[in-house]
Structures are given as structure tokens and as C-alpha cells.
Design goal:
By secondary structure, the protein is mainly α. 58% of the residues lie in helices and 5% in strands. The chain has a two-stranded antiparallel sheet with strand order 1-2. It is globular.
């Protein structure tokens, strides 16, 4: 991939990522605060841990793209405790990182990054990798919400709980 191709792909993927972030923020905020210990089985992450995993890992991916090195995700601030606060923290940090990544030069977009010795890819490819992570865990969390007593927001279209086309 040339540097110019990488920059084109980066700009395109950041537009998609912005939409995915807004959707993820809705799903994070929809988790009922009263049942954050819920998990469908013992093998599953509790909802509260899953909420923070989604938010912090997504920020870690973008921070890694920016710095050129991936590390541990951010620690949860003491002031961020509810799903709504996690969602707000997520939006603030993701949008700030996206603005910086959007300013990448073609050479920055194509530079090879190493992901913990597991995978080496151009920086632009990690935007797609981050989206896959978000979508995967967002689906997991959305399957928790209704059994937790919440309402599942629309994701790629209406949900049974959030459907503008349903008869009133």
C-alpha cells in the first residue's frame, strides 16, 4: 500500500469509526447501573468489567496508533463509575484521539506498527482492527442489556426496544 492509499483509507475508515463510536456510546450508556455484576454464565465477563474493557481498550487502540506503540489501556478514573459516565468518558477520549489521527500525514498512516509482537500492520489497518474489537464486544454487551433489565438501543437498525417504526 502506498502512503497516499493509506491516507485515503484512513480518512474513509475514520468516518465509519465515528459512527461506530456513537453507537457504542449508546450501548454503553444503556446498561442498567443496578446490575453491573450480571453475566450470562460464569465464563463471561461481568457487565461492569465489560463496559470498562470496551471503553478502555478502544482508547488504548487509538492511543497506540497515535504514539506508535501499544500498551496497557487507561486506568478507570475514580469519578467514572456509572455506565453513563463510562460512555461520556469514552466519547471524549475517542473523539479527541480521532481528531489527532485525522491529521496524520500519508507517511504516518502507512507506517508499520507492532501489536505486542503478535501482529505488524500499517497504522491505518489498526483503525479497522479497533472497529472489529468495538463491534465484537458491543454485540456481547447488547446481549446483556435486556436480561439486566435495560432497553437495547438501535444499533444498525431498530431494536425491539428502540423502534420508530413499531405501532404505538
Amino acid at each position: 500500500m502506498t502512503a497516499e492509499q493509506a491516507k485515503f483509507l484512513l480518512d474513509h475508515n475514520l468516518g465509519i469509526l465515528r459512527q461506530e463510536i456513537a453507537t457504542t456510546a449508546k450501548v454503553l450508556a444503556a446498561a442498567p447501573n443496578a446490575n453491573l455484576d450480571y453475566r450470562p454464565s460464569e465464563r463471561c465477563m461481568p457487565a461492569g468489567k465489560l463496559l470498562w474493557h470496551i471503553a478502555s481498550a478502544d482508547v488504548m487502540f487509538l492511543q497506540g496508533i497515535l504514539s506508535g506503540a501499544f500498551g496497557k489501556g487507561p486506568e478507570k478514573p475514580e469519578t467514572v463509575t456509572t455506565p453513563e459516565e463510562i460512555s461520556a468518558w469514552y466519547l471524549t477520549n475517542m473523539n479527541a484521539a480521532i481528531e489527532k489521527i485525522a491529521a496524520f500525514t500519508p507517511e504516518e498512516a502507512v507506517r508499520t506498527l507492532d501489536f505486542f509482537g503478535i501482529s505488524q500492520m500499517p497504522a491505518v489497518d489498526f483503525v479497522g482492527f479497533a472497529m472489529g474489537h468495538t463491534i465484537h464486544h458491543r454485540g456481547q454487551l447488547s446481549s446483556y442489556i435486556r436480561p439486566m433489565g435495560g432497553k437495547v438501543p438501535s444499533i444498525y437498525g431498530p431494536s425491539a426496544d428502540d423502534n420508530p417504526f413499531a405501532a404505538a
